[in-house]
Structure formats: C-alpha cells, structure tokens
C-alpha cells in the first residue's frame, strides 16, 4: 500500500504497540499531526505545555511501565527543548524514542526558519540517532530505533525526519513478529537482548568459568555485601534469592531503590552522599563487594580511592564499558542481572555470616515517630496512605528525603532523575507514569523544582491525570542552601525564594483542589482526600527554611565520614 | 554475549587492576605505564560516523594523536585508525566505549611488534639551486621522493613510521619549510591476522 512518510511513521508506531505519544506540534511536523488526527482511534496524544516535559513524560512512562516511551516535537526550538529530557533519559538508561521533524532537505544547512542540527546536538546523549533522508528507509529506521532503545542497556534514541520525507510517498509493507527485529549482529555488545534458548545455552557455557571464580571469591569472604543498582530493576526476585543464599546484606543505589524490600533485615538502604549509616559503613567494612547493575557513580562512591578499602570487587553489569571505569574490579561478569544472578545462585552453596549480618543490620536506623512536622514524618505519613503507589520526584532536598524515608517496596516504584539530577523532571515524569500505568501517581516536589514545571498543571488538569502533588515548600532552593550553609559561609546567594506564587491560588487558577498544611494531622487528612479525589491536586507542606538532608557525606570524602548526622 | 575481552580477568596475560587501595583508574591512571597505542576500528560507512567516533573521544577525555579514515574492500564498511597515549585502563575504556556506538562493528588494539604502520608527509621547502643538492641527499637517505620541483621550491613525499618522519622533518628543519601536511597513521597486522580475527593476535 502506498503511504506518505507521516502515515508510515504512525503505522510503524502502531506496529510497535505504541498507545500514547507525548508531544507538541509545529510547522515541521504538521504532516505527522495530520496523520495522528486520522488515527486517533489507535494512538492517543498527550499535548504538554512545553516539549521538555513531553520528553520527561515519555521517560516517566518508560520507567514506570518498562515499555518504550515515545515523544514527538517539531524542528528547531521544539527539538532543542527536548535536549534536557534526552540527557536525563540517557543518564538513567531509560528507553525512549524521540521523534523530531526538520525543515525540508533542500533547506537544510541554510539556516532556514526553525532549523537546528538536532542530530549533532544530541549525538553525545543518545544511544543512537538517525536523519531519515529517504522515505523508503523510514519504516526500517523506526523498527531499528525501537529495537536499539530497548536492547542491551536501554537508552534514548532520536529520529530526525525532514518535512519532505514526511510528505513523500512509497510502498509500505506492514511487519510483525520476528520481522520487526532488524538484522543486527547478535554479538554487538550494545544490542544484546536477554539470551534465551540456544543463545542462553551458549552464554551459560561461556560464563561458567567466571561464575566458578565468583563462587570461590564469595565462599572465601567473611563479610560479603551486595550493592544493587538500576540494572537490577527486572531482577528483584533473583536478587532476593542470591542475598539469602550468600547470607549477604544489600545496599542500594538511588536508582536501585525498590529492588529489595526495605522491611527485610537484609536491606541496608541507600548508599552514598545521603546514604544510611548502615549502608555506608557496611560498604567500608565489607571484604567482598558484589556490585550488580551499578556504575559506581561519584555520588555513591564518595572518595573513590577510599571506597570499600578492604574489599574485593565483583562487578556484574550489562554494559561492558562500566567495568573498570570508576573502580577497578577483581572479577567482572558481563550480562543481564537476571540471568547472571540466577546462574550464580544455582551454583553457590548456601553461606552463613550470622555475625556480619547482625552487625550490619544493627546499624539500621529505627524510625521513631513523633509529631513534628518535618520531612521524615511527612514521608512516613505519605507512605501509610500511598502504600506501593508509584512516586515521582523532582531534584533537591525533597528527592533525597523521599529516597531516605519512603520505603520503596517494588522496582519501578520510584521515578527520579538520578544521573543528570534534572530539576523540573518530576511533573512530566509523573504524568507519563500515570498515563502508562493507568493509576494515580504521587509527585513529591519542592518549591524550586515545581516552578520549573508547574506549567504542566494545565496538562494534568485537562487530561484528568491523577497526579497527587506533595509540594515541600521551604521558600528556598534547599539543597543549594544546605551546601551554602555547610561549605560557603552561609552566603545564601540567589537561593532564597521569597516571592510567589501562592500555590493555593495557583491550584485554584488551574481548577485543582489544593491543601496547605502545617501539621502532620492536617497532612494525613489532606492526603487521604487527595488520594480519594482521583484527579490532580496539590498538598503544600510548609517546611522550615533550614531543614537539612542528613546524614550527609561531603563530596569527595570517604563515605563513612559523615559531616551531618 | 561477551564478544571478546582483552581485559579478561581469568586470562593470566590480561592487564591486571591495580592494588585495591588505588582503585580509581581515572585519577591514578598515570601510575601505570603510559604508552602509545594504535587502535583500529571497523565502522558502518554512513554519514556522521566520523563525528560519532571523534565526538566520543573528545567528550570522554581521550586525546587522539592522529586519526585516519577510509573505505575498505567492503563498501559498507570503513576503517578508522586512531593513535593515542594512555595506560592499559585508559585503552580498555576507549575500546569499550567505542563498542557502545551502534556504528562500530569491531575494535582492535594493535600490537606494535606485530603490525606495520605508515603515515605520509608532504613537505614544501624553499630550495633554489644552492640548497637543492643537499636536500635531495636527505631525501635519498630516507627513501623519500621529490614530487614537485620549481625554481625556488622542492616538494617532498615521505612515507614511514612516526619515528622516521620525525627524524627526516628534524633534518629538514635546517631549511626554510614553507608548509607541511601529513596524514594520520594507518596500520595493519602482520601475516595472516586481520581485524576480523581476534584481538591482540
């Protein structure tokens, strides 16, 4: 059947099972929006107020569901507005397909209206990218893009489609099943899928000597510790099994929160700059560190030289380039966490480290509830009401408080910008997560971050996306203020937010319900009503300007030397 | 799954991580010996490939001494030769980062003892009748060639390894060099070994 490029694009998205697009129209994508109009029955479109938040929404959709998110924007400013969203997805390995229009090819390179070299701009923050110069290559490119975004270590990809390619016509052959997977070398390290069948047998054969060596190291260890990150998202049950088999406690990175039940005595919580005492101290005392799906970020490591000084390191990761990048290892195994952990568990005899486990878990903090209206108590109250709902955050103090005090009991429950630390990420991501899961989502944000994305209130309101916004209003850019307090002689340079808006009036202006609370009881009542409402609303929590995130390790210090307790 | 790994922890010949107390391979990398490496990369022959490879090198902090690129016997595949200074950990990172580019098909680190390397230099010298003979003697010694002669200038073509080209340019420095242009190093393994074979072979 003969179709124009725009129609082929939509057919290919339907072919990939895409149900929702997040985007914003413009001149260079008009043909695509015309096709969307015709195919409203098959594919829905969420119009955001700004392209950046459409990008974050597609990212949040991907993180919450595990399916690939899709975002569409026009050329020039539309495309450049996506840059932060693309970089955010890239740093946290989130599979998103970004689609941009571009000016017709005969105008490219002439500085024409709304022209930008988005391929060049995003080259270092995408897993791969394409400029489609021929409509006959479009369908194959879209199939490749979806394959690459989701295979190996996932990540964002970008397809730039000039307007003339959207209009040009060619024969379109629908594809399904195996034909959707492009003919890429199965050996390409960036494109490996989780092995199965024959491939799994071959993988097992090749990995066996490494597993044997890993078992030797584990059996020789007295104080083993598992360090689990975002790469374990789809291997939580394997992690639990291995932790029990090894009798080893588990410390999480920010991205790994939820991969082990925080109520389990084996869970030591988050490690790093704002990590728990239990996790940070265990990290420094262990004699074997089994690092799974982590990239040894500087925020988790503190001082890399002084990190886990007495430990042998076994690093299991899908991305070979992460091995020996920040920390050199005794042994590494390249592969999917789910596969490697399962194989390791099968091979390893049960271990016992009673004293070590008792010692490590005795450092776990016991939460003593009181009635003070402080972040810790608010988050516990939020957890009582929200349970295992998906929680998105922005970036700053509220993000760290949430990571520390909200017990995440399942993977994909916490949606947060870990690697890039993008203020303004949360609202878009929460909208995407809610659309993707079909369930209400809590957004914990701060007054600083919320200013960056409150423009999306109209989006949530219009589509009735139930995002419960818990807004920590302390009248400051709190995390920066905290650093100014600790390291810059209390020079509060440009961090005090002594200005509007009145968030309750703002809620009203957008037609949302809002509660401003200053006590725990008021918070509990407000959050109960908010969760019942089934539509977006704001619960504004008035906090003191000098609340700090503790514990804290100064940047570059060993992670067991806390500068705040 | 694991294509091949020159830094295989089970291989006794593979480079080993440093002592546990100096684990940070980036900041303490200078403790390990820094040597010159030649890396050959097979890439898909498509627009933008060179900027993907060179962009990766610059943003990850690899200082490339030279880079040469050209098509191979297979028109869909180009071959890039990079030379750079670094220790084993540095080179390991470069190889693994290159593999993350979808356009990269194969990367090998060439063993200098088992490969041949060449670069080409064109050098234009101010040489009238008085200097011509002396310059031509240097050209003969280095088995270079004169590719253009004019009343007042000589243009010399020299191929060879880095050491040889440096040595000859050192001698020519006594004369008035008008301009120099040089290609990046290209290299092949000796004997039966090809880039399609294993690494370090």
Automatic annotation (TrEMBL), chain B:
Q: Annotated region Disordered: where?
A: 1-31
* Annotated metabolic or biological route of this protein: Amino-acid biosynthesis; L-valine biosynthesis; L-valine from pyruvate: step 1/4; Amino-acid biosynthesis; L-isoleucine biosynthesis; L-isoleucine from 2-oxobutanoate: step 1/4
Q: Which GO terms describe its molecular function?
A: acetolactate synthase activity; acetolactate synthase regulator activity
| GO biological process, any | isoleucine biosynthetic process
Whichever gene encodes this chain, its name is: ilvN
Q: What is its EC number?
A: 2.2.1.6
Q: Which GO terms describe its cellular component?
A: cytosol
Q: What are the Polar residues biased-composition ranges?
A: 22-31
InterPro entries found in the cross-reference section: Acetalactate_synth_ssu, Acetolactate_synth/TF_NikR_C, Acetolactate_synth_ssu_C, ACT-like_dom_sf, ACT_dom, AHAS_ACT, AHAS_small-like_ACT
What class does this enzyme belong to in the EC scheme?
transferase
> What is the annotated quaternary arrangement, including any partners?
Dimer of large and small chains.
Family designation: Belongs to the acetolactate synthase small subunit family.
Top-level taxon: Bacteria
The alphabetized UniProt keywords are: Amino-acid biosynthesis, Branched-chain amino acid biosynthesis, Transferase
Please give the CDD domains that the UniProt record associates with this protein.
Answer: ACT_AHAS
Reaction catalysed by this enzyme: 2 pyruvate + H(+) = (2S)-2-acetolactate + CO2
Q: What is this protein called?
A: acetolactate synthase
Query: Which parts of the sequence belong to the ACT domain?
Result: 38-112
Pfam families attached to this UniProt entry: ACT_AHAS_ss, ALS_ss_C
């Amino acid at each position: 059947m003969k179709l124009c490029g725009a129609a082929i694009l939509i057919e290919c998205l339907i072919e990939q099972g895409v149900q929702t697009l997040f985007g914003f129209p413009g001149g260079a994508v008009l043909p695509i929006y015309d096709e969307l109009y015709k195919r409203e029955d098959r594919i829905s479109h969420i119009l955001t107020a700004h392209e950046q938040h459409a990008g974050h929404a597609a990212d949040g959709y991907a993180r919450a569901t595990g399916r690939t998110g899709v975002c569409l924007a026009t050329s020039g400013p539309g495309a450049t507005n996506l840059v932060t969203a693309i970089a955010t997805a890239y740093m946290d390995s989130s599979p998103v397909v970004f689609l941009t229009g571009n000016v017709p090819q005969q105008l490219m390179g002439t500085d024409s209206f709304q022209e930008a070299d988005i391929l060049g701009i995003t080259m270092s923050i995408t897993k791969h990218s394409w400029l489609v110069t021929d409509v006959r290559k479009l369908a194959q490119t879209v199939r490749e893009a979806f394959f690459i975004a989701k295979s190996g270590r996932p990540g964002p990809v970008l397809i730039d489609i000039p307007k003339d390619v959207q209009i040009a016509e060619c024969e379109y052959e629908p594809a399904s099943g195996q034909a959707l997977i492009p003919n890429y070398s199965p050996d390409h390290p960036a494109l490996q899928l989780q092995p199965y069948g024959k491939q799994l047998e071959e993988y097992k054969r090749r990995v066996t000597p490494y597993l044997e060596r890993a078992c030797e190291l584990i059996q020789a260890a007295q104080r083993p510790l598992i360090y689990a990150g975002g790469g374990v998202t789809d291997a939580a049950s394997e992690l639990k099994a291995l932790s029990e088999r090894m009798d080893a406690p588990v410390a999480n990175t920010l991205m790994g929160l939820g991969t082990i039940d925080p109520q389990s005595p084996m869970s030591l919580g988050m490690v790093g700059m704002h990590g728990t005492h239990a996790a940070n101290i265990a990290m420094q005392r262990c004699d074997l560190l089994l690092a799974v799906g982590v990239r040894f970020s500087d925020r988790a490591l503190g001082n890399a030289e002084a990190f886990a000084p007495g430990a042998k390191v076994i690093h299991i990761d899908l991305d070979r380039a992460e091995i020996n990048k920040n920390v050199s290892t005794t042994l590494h195994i390249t592969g999917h966490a789910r596969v490697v952990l399962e194989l390791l568990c099968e091979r390893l005899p049960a271990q016992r480290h009673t004293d070590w486990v008792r010692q490590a878990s005795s450092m776990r903090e016991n939460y003593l509830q009181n009635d003070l209206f402080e972040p810790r108590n608010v988050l516990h109250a939020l957890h009582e009401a929200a349970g295992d709902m998906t929680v998105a955050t922005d970036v700053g103090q509220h993000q760290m408080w949430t990571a520390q005090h909200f017990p995440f009991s399942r993977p994909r429950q916490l949606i947060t910008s870990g690697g890039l630390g993008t203020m303004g990420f949360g609202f878009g991501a929460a909208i995407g997560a809610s659309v993707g899961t079909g369930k209400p989502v809590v957004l914990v944000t701060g007054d600083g971050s919320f200013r960056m994305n409150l423009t999306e209130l109209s989006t949530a309101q219009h589509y009735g996306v139930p995002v419960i916004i818990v807004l920590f209003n302390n009248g400051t850019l709190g995390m920066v203020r905290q650093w100014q307090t600790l390291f810059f002689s209390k020079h509060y340079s440009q961090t005090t937010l002594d200005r509007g808006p009145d968030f309750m009036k703002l809620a009203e202006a957008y037609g949302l319900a809002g509660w401003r609370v200053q006590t725990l009881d008021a918070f509990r009542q407000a959050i109960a009503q908010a969760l019942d409402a089934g539509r977006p609303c704001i619960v504004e929590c008035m906090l003191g300007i000098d609340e700090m995130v503790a514990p804290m390790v100064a940047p570059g210090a060993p992670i067991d030397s806390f500068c705040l307790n | 799954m694991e294509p091949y790994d020159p830094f295989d922890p089970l291989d006794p010949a593979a480079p080993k991580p440093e002592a546990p107390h100096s684990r940070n391979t980036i900041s303490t990398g200078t403790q390990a010996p820094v040597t010159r490496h030649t890396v050959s990369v097979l890439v898909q022959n498509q627009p933008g490939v060179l900027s993907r490879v060179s962009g990766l090198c610059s943003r990850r902090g690899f200082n490339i001494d030279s880079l040469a690129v050209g098509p191979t016997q297979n028109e869909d595949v180009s071959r890039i030769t990079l030379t750079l200074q670094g220790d084993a950990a540095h080179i390991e990172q470069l190889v693994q980062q290159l593999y993350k580019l979808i356009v990269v098909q194969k990367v090998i680190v060439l063993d200098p003892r088992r490969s041949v390397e060449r670069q080409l230099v064109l050098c234009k010298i101010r040489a009238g009748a008085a200097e011509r003979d002396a310059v031509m003697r240097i050209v003969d010694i280095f088995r270079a060639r004169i590719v253009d002669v004019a009343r007042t200038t000589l243009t010399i073509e020299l191929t060879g390894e880095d050491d040889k080209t440096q040595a000859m340019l050192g001698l020519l420095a006594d004369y008035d060099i008008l301009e120099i242009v040089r290609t990046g190093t290209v290299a092949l393994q000796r004997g039966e070994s090809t880039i399609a074979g294993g690494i370090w072979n």
